[in-house]
Amino acid sequence: MSRTNRLHELLRRLRHHDGPVSGPDLAEALGVPLRTLYQDIAALRAVGVEVVSEPGQGYVLPPDVLLPPLALREPAAAQPAELVFYTHPLSRGGIVHWMLEELGVPYRLVTLEYGATMKSPDYLAINPMGKVPAIRHGERVVTEAAAICAYLADAFPEADLVPPPPARGDYYRWLFFAAGPLEAAISLDSLGFRPSVEQRMRLGSGDYAAVIDTLAAAVEGRRYIAGDAFSAADVYVGSHIGWGMQFGTLPRRPEFEAYWAGLKDRPARQQCEAFVQQALAQQA
């Protein structure tokens, strides 16, 4: 089936389906991988055919959407913006790598080495800090792992990795709690810095013990950090908890063990873990 015919068939199925239809069901009906379905939906949106994503339910084509016959010819064949991922296997880039695999969208991976290539003029034009991870999506550049996760969740809503706007309180709260107080507290503690009471008042991270207790309470008895569905916040918070327990910067508390157990075997994360293990084997 040609792409044009496939797009028309996709629209036909959406128009005649009673209620939302899930991405996996659509992909199976069309006989294409889920990643191809995401690309087709992006192509439709690019020409003004607004396929609506209902979080946790699937896709809907509003009844008032106009379908101009010529809209699906040449414009639909245009390639989506290139997504380039700059990383190192043994870095915070693993967080973004996991996020990208969860999205299921095409991306080009560029592995940089610490030192020369991360500090090269070409890469400093991407990230003046000379650190990874970073992404370039078309003409847009985004750095900082939490920001990249939030950006990607918004840029690819069809992956359902962000809650609907009215339900994003916990999503934003814990995503940026992990990026701010948690990471700062872990870094200071690992360097042996024990702030005084006065210094804790001046630090956004406050006291290490209070940060750990707060995080433990946030995940206690919860499968996901921001509601009933897996989200980009779980990628970020889960990465910190998994790595923290592995490297001893977080205690192996029952709350952390239980939360991480529900995330660590996700296929997307396992794919990234294989990438890390391959890099470690090459260094041995």
Strand arrangement in the largest pleated sheet: 4-3-5-6
Distance between the termini: 48 Å
The total of beta strands comes to 6
> In oligomeric terms, what are we looking at?
single chain
Number of helices: 12
The major pleated sheet works out as: 4 strands, mixed
> Helicity range of the residues?
40-55%
Average residue-wise pLDDT: 90
**SSE topology string:** HHHEEEHEHEEHHHHHHH
Give the structural class: alpha+beta
**What is the domain tally?**
3
Please supply descriptive tags for the structure shown above:
284 residues; alpha+beta; Arc Repressor Mutant, subunit A; Glutathione S-transferase Yfyf (Class Pi), Chain A, domain 2; 12 helices; globular
Quick recap:
This protein has three domains: 3-77, Winged helix-like DNA-binding domain superfamily/Winged helix DNA-binding domain (Arc Repressor Mutant, subunit A); 83-159, Glutaredoxin (3-Layer(aba) Sandwich), CATH 3.40.30; 165-271, Glutathione S-transferase Yfyf (Class Pi), Chain A, domain 2 (Up-down Bundle), CATH 1.20.1050.10.
Topology:
Elements: H1 3-16, H2 23-30, H3 34-46, E1 52-54, E2 58-60, E3 83-87, H4 93-103, E4 108-111, H5 121-124, E5 134-137, E6 140-143, H6 145-155, H7 169-190, H8 197-202, H9 208-219, H10 232-247, H11 254-261, H12 267-283
Parallel strand pairs: 3-4
Antiparallel strand pairs: 1-2, 3-5, 5-6
Helix pairs in contact: 2-3, 4-6, 4-10, 4-12, 6-10, 7-9, 7-10, 10-11
